[in-house]
Write a structure and sequence with these properties.
By secondary structure, this protein is an alpha/beta fold. It folds into two domains: 161 residues, no CATH class; 284 residues, Purple Acid Phosphatase, chain A, domain 2 (4-Layer Sandwich). Helices cover 37% and strands 19% of the residues. It has 13 helices and 20 strands. The strands form three sheets. It has an eight-stranded mixed β-sheet with strand order 10-9-8-7-17-18-19-20. Strand 18 and strand 19 form a beta hairpin. The longest helix has 39 residues. The protein is elongated and about 150 Å long. It starts with a helix and ends in an 8-residue tail after the last strand.
Length: 560
Amino acid sequence: MTSPFHRRAALAARRVQRRAILMAAGRRRRPIRPAAPPLARLRRVLRGALVGVVAMIGMLIGVTLGGTTTQDIGPFRAQLSLLPAWHGDTSVEIPPLGSLELDSHDGPVHLRIRLDSLDEARARAVVADGGGNLEQISHDAVDQLDLGVRRLALQTAGSGILGAMVLVGLAFRARRETAIAGVLVVAALASTGGATVFTFKPAAIQEPTYRGLLVNAPAIIGDARKISDRYEEYRAQLQKLVLNVSKLYGTISALPVYEPNTSATKVLHISDMHLNPAAWGVIRSVADQFAVDVIVDTGDINDWGSEPEASYVNEISRLRIPYLYIRGNHDSTVTAAAVARQPNAIVLDNSITTVKGLTFAGIGDPRFTPDKSTDTTNNQQHDQVITSGELLAEKIRSGDKPVDVALVHDPVAAQPLAGACPLVLAGHKHQRSITRLDAPAPMAVAAPSPSVSASASASASASASPQPPKQPTERTLLMVEGSTGGAGLRGLESEKPLPLALSILYFDENHRLSAYDDIQVGGTGLTEVALQRHIVPEDTKPGATPTPTLTPSPSPFLSR
């Protein structure tokens, strides 16, 4: 019979043997953990929710910062952006004309395509082979846009994931939560992409909604049926128009520069651009080639004077030379304010300024009549224009120094300025003209009575109002510029498109206009650029003909 001691020893040996067997088999009993209290479970749930919220915030930050790319579409540079939105859709922005809104999808992301600029180098490449690859480029544009959208989607997804993981990592400093954030964002982006693809509507491009100035397109261009009938004609002219771009740059680069002497001040006179984007390229080329000192704009830079058009004037800052501007009857106070915000621009409104040694005075058009159906020839408006010229003439005559150039928009306002300054620049008519203005005859002054003593006469003279400064010996020269924008979109209405017109004015050391160059760039379908150079003769004879005979210099015409 075994003792209790032996029984306990045998039991312990069996336990040790069983543990050895279990350990050899890799089976070790884990200690049973007690169930977590409800408060701890709540904390874990709240922490997980907080990780999700921070991850979504980081994703939005990443999408906002990285959800933009650029894509070359033919000769255009386009900016593509993906933005969070409730209703999805796609917008195609065409500054400064407005935008097209397409109901393309219902996903929580909005696609914005913005056509920023026309690249000059690629435009020249288009016409390098005579325009024969235009058809191919039109087909390639769709593939280029598709490539840009795909790259934008990948870039936006990567930015969103990175933004979420970085923000969660900084907030929680734990690799587990950072990995969870990445998984959550991938799931969110996948569901967003799926919703976009599932709700995509290819037919939406046939039913766009117009915003901005594009709403007014029929009023600007004319009868839509007429435009539709002439569409094939415009399409045939497209190749010529693109070819003209290269010819323009080639001609401008070869133009000889009139340089009477090294002290000449060169002023570029432009007017009536009417929102034509092509005008800026011509202005920049001429300003650079001729090394002009000042640009003078006599108004109608916009078409409707609306807020969306304000971005059009941002090109002024790229010219990097002084830019003097007065309002036209198509320019609103919004337009003038947008011009005034440009660092190199000066807006004149019954004011005087001196730039590059020349003193300019200018006043804006008192009318605001962007709608061409408005009658701008009635007596009331005519009187308003005359009054504006009288105000500017009074301002000039009361000034401390003589004015070299006066600026008005409508030539009607120039008549009161006759005799107040030697030169008046205007626009409005979309047609070049040059005339001499006769100053009004001085009013006769009654002779004093013999009974009045000499001292009394001297006293009366001293107490009289101060006499205006001495008038210029030459009659005032009025130079009306054509349309630097070819009348804008309205130029398409005429059978013969208006050329883009601008002039270079040369002033000698005495601030006298000694010569000027007329430059005209053929409109749609035309293929020539002309330079007409003139010497301005003196005109001191009061009885001379109002229209001066202006002598052209040698080689007056160049065309390509």
